[in-house]
Design a protein that fits this description.
Layout: E1 17-20, H1 31-42, H2 46-54, H3 57-61, H4 67-78, H5 88-96, H6 101-112, E2 116-121, H7 125-134, E3 141-144, H8 145-148, H9 155-165, E4 172-176, H10 179-186, E5 191-194, H11 198-209
Parallel strand pairs: 1-2, 1-4, 2-3, 4-5
Length: 213
């Protein structure tokens, strides 16, 4: 698939940037597998672990809670012993990491054609560190909730992404697999695509970018 920067939406500005979500778009969502592995490690049910984690998720994903403190709080709530490894989150995340090759190729193709390419993710410090170790070169800007102290769908995190990409909302398309995160972007005037499949995303991008050469 080839891209050319010629498409305008009515009389509005040309699209200059495409922002990708990470978990659920560029990679298969690792959450289910991770919950299963953590629950097995702690000897509790998936449901119990997931319910307990929700109480601390925002703190953890916005960098206010370390992994060590997370396990302390979780295990206290679940009345179980702490896991064998203080870096269990990072270890399990790496095991659950399954990239969608077509989506990474899409990001690379956009960059090669001169679009600014960003990544915007709600994630934890261990996951961010894993991402950095992959040395992906197709992203001009990466914005992680754990490093910014805010997360999707709060407006601040989208504004951070726009500022670093040096684009206006009307010059930007954001791809995510969650409607509530897309709604947060839409409130600022960012165009959005709900991820269902790689082929569907490419087709919808044609509307914004006129991708057929």
């Amino acid at each position: 698939m080839r891209f050319r920067k010629v498409y305008r939406i009515g009389d509005e500005k040309m699209i200059k940037a495409v922002i990708f979500d990470w978990g659920g778009v560029l990679i298969e969502n690792p959450a289910k597998m991770m919950i299963q592995r953590f629950a097995a490690s702690l000897g509790v049910t998936d449901e119990a672990l997931n319910n307990a984690y929700r109480n601390f998720m925002r703190e953890f994903q916005t960098g206010r809670l370390s992994e060590e403190k997370l396990w302390e709080k979780l295990c206290r709530e679940l009345n179980v012993s702490k896991p064998y490894s203080s870096s269990l989150w990072g270890e399990v995340f790496a095991q659950a990491y399954h990239p969608r090759t077509e989506m990474f190729l899409l990001a690379s193709a956009l960059k090669e054609k001169g679009y600014t390419v960003g990544l915007l993710s709600n994630c934890e410090m261990r996951a961010m560190e894993f991402f950095q170790q992959q040395h992906y070169n197709m992203f001009d800007v990466t914005v992680f909730s754990c490093a910014e102290g805010t997360w999707k769908p709060e407006k601040d995190i989208y504004q951070i992404a726009l500022q670093r990409l040096d684009v206006e909302p009307q010059e930007t398309v954001f791809i995510d697999d969650r409607k509530d995160f897309l709604e947060g972007a839409q409130k600022l005037g960012i165009y959005t695509i709900l991820f269902n499949s790689s082929s569907q995303v490419k087709e919808e991008l044609e509307h914004y970018l006129s991708v057929k050469a």
